[in-house]
Amino acid sequence: MTLLIVPDGSAKVTRFTITKRQIILAVMAACFVFVSVVFIIIHYFHMVDQALENNNLKEENLALKSQLKELQTNVKNAMNTITRIERFETKLRMMLQLSDPDRNLAIGPIGAPGNEPSEKPLFGELLPGIKESSASQMLKLALLSNRIANIKAEADKTEEHLRELKSYFDAQKNVLSSTPSTWPCRGWITSSFGYRYDPYTGDRTMHKGIDIANQVGTPVSTPADGQVISVEYNPQYGKIIQIDHGNSILTRYAHLNEISVSEGEKVIRGQKIGKLGNSGRSTGPHLHYEIEVNGIYVNPMKYILD
Description:
By secondary structure, the chain is an alpha+beta fold. The protein has a domain at about 190-305: Distorted Sandwich (Glucose Permease (Domain IIA)), CATH 2.70.70. The chain is built from 3 helices and 14 strands. It has helices spanning about 20-95, 135-170, 175; strands spanning about 1-5, 15, 190, 195, 205, 210-215, 220, 225-235, 240-245, 250-260, 265, 270-275, 285-295, 295-300. Strands 3, 6, 7, 8, 9, 10, 11, 12, 13 and 14 form a 10-stranded antiparallel sheet that branches. Strands 1-2 form a two-stranded antiparallel ribbon. Helix 1 runs parallel beside helix 2. It is rod-shaped, with a radius of gyration of 42 Å.
């Protein structure tokens, strides 16, 4: 094929010769360009859709992450609450001699073996980041829901135990009022119940109570109803009060500075009976507090609920 370009006037005529092969190549090039343009357009719209989908997934992931955080907080709070209730229940049972492993008075377990709270995470790392897939997040939500169901079952069991305790309290209200359950005075513990080295002799001896230190004159009150059976001075314990609470429970308060009750007087929980001091064999102002049950010294901390 010959292509002539004839300008107006006397300008030279331009001649182009096009072979069949050149035409085929041109057509092929045009088809390639057309296909490339179509591919680029399709790819562009695909990338736009992909970006929109990624944004949606990102928003969905953020929402799931927020739900996971809230659920995780709720689960931890529920577990902590159940743990506190179980500890409180255990103390109540020990106080009332319903379950005291130290003196073999248990009448039954307060929970099934293996119900102790775990210090491990609920199921690994809950919130590894935005890159985690929605399916994985949904799986963890399902696991959290299952854990919440287990916690509800534990809560129901604990509630049943507490109902048993309430029935016991209703039947024996006098036990509550005459069982030591509060601090005899405020302060800080300087010596716990158990064996220790005597501050005077250095010998390892049994400390039959707890020592609560504070300023001289700090009020001392009785932690339960009872009757004062002894008010005396002892070279070792100084000014000392002994109260009988019934049910074979006795409490003693030593190293007092002042005594506000007399022998034979009936007292009620929270009544002031004296003031903290430094009388007798003492290295500083404190209250020595003892609890004796059936002639056996027990750790007073087991009987303090507040």
